[in-house]
Amino acid sequence: xxxxxxxxxxxxxxxxxxxxxxxxxxxxxxxxxxxxxxxxxxxxxxxxxxxxxxxxxxxxxxxxxxxxxxxxxxxxxxxxxxxxxxxxxxxxxxxxxxxxxxxxxxxxxxxxxxxxxxxxxxxxxxxxxxxxxxxxxxxxxxxxxxxxxxxxxxxxxxxxxxxxxxxxxxxxxxxxxxxxxxxxxxxxxxxxxxxxxxxxxxxxxxxxxxxxxxxxxxxxxxxxxxxxxxxxxxxxxxxxxxxxxxxxxxxxxxxxx
Length: 257
Prior knowledge:
Blueprint: H1 14-18, H2 22-29, E1 34-37, E2 42-46, E3 49-58, E4 61-65, E5 83-86, E6 89-92, H3 106-116, H4 121-130, E7 136-144, E8 153-161, E9 166-174, H5 190-222, E10 245-249, H6 253-256
């Protein structure tokens, strides 16, 4: 989801808006999965990580990508794979094969989810935020990259804040993240620098960002995700909170105090 300019692009293939594909309906029906609209594509998130990246339609073919780390082995009668020493070293017999996604049925997806579980405390915090219906998640992993910039900023969440009646960005950290604390040399915590950069990005592009996320809400409604955004007004307020919020997870009661 890297962007070439500060203005992020959000759209889906027009055919999907006219007729929701069966595979997308399966994803939307799973309360643990979060399909987010990208640049003429959809990325499916689970526990704050991208399970399937950039699903899109090109020349009549639906395609995307998935990390090899998240692909489980095909189910067999035994939990073990036999290994045989051959001329080129040990080999599997029979050959081990990856589990295919197939039609994204819940039993198959369960195995992919199991591969992704426990792969990051920050992702778990994002997941707990995302599955709470009152948190109106509009987008995840929003990346900004200005012209000529080598690095890019990536904000964890965009939500609709029903109190402020505006879109709002949220950066998520866990209490164990070293970026929250003053460095040994007394420098300002890295997270403060992050939030300042994000604030500048929002200020420079507030109108465009508001328009983009308003379109995202409309597209999600057309794709059958309206219930996930039930707390957003029918007529979306064209406003955005200028300062990003910081959410710190996994805190004990004493740490909160």
